[in-house]
Amino acid sequence: MLVVSCLSWARVVFRGPNILLTANRGSLQVNPSTKVDDKRAANRRHWDQTLDARNLGADNAVGSDWRHEVDLAESADVRLAIRLLHPLGDKIVLDLGGGLGIHAILFAEAGARVVIADISVERLKVARELIRRTGYIDRVSFIACGAEELPFVAHAFDRQFTKSVLIHTQLGRASAELVRTLSPRGSATFIEPLTGNPFVNAYRRIAAPDIWQNITDYFDRKSLRTLGRTFRASGYTTRCHRIYFLAFFASVFHFLLPSVWLQRRVERALLALDRLLFRAFPSLRGRCWFSVTEIRPKHPK
Fold this sequence. Notes:
Elements: E1 13-15, E2 20-22, E3 28-30, H1 38-48, H2 66-73, H3 76-85, E4 92-96, H4 102-109, E5 113-118, H5 121-134, E6 140-144, E7 157-163, H6 171-181, E8 182-193, H7 198-206, H8 211-215, H9 221-232, E9 236-243, H10 252-255, H11 260-280, E10 290-297
Parallel strand pairs: 3-6, 4-5, 4-7, 5-6, 7-8
Antiparallel strand pairs: 1-2, 8-10, 9-10
Helix pairs in contact: 2-4, 6-9
């Protein structure tokens, strides 16, 4: 057994048929018990070949300007999700599907200790090198595993987070694993893209990579119910925040013409317009691009 020097990590233990390893800060562990089906194999192959923070291709891999990529990723939905998870000081956070470690940097900057769990070993290798450059390597560990079989003991995490991850999983199994590994007094935020935005749907039909159709099940009402019901059955409360109707167009300055300055200002203006539209036409909330599912304990203390 590998024992780390920080006792607050001691409860984050990998479980498996032949292993029992305590999370070792800065280490990269591969879970040998993960079963691979055809969809998961296709998922892994895709992400092993997609090594940039904006998922535009390996030629855009994160370089020395990691701060720019982190700032771009800190969009309104991510800021909301992280704010809902505060306080974060010395909390142990599961960044599920954390890929290249961009969001883990935000958590580490807020004082948290982070375990990045991702299906792609190649992305985790990039994440480890990136986070080493940021100086937060002593606050982050890395584990290659599937969301449906998390190799951690029960109640391992104080906080959990995803961004566009559960859409690539078997949701029922992944939700059950998230519940199992969340502390009874813990909280979580899951950011997932929805099916209802007409502008996003047009993009998906016209310009999205074909592979997305094979590895993605975008969230709909049934998905949101499945996720919420699983946590409520274990004594948590849930709330769904919907975000980005017209504000979807601010993503142009994230993906196509990356500019933090323009992204923040256009996003702020369009979100204000969205709020006006939602007040006038409440049904438009059902046309949002993303949901942020907030999980809290029913009795926090």
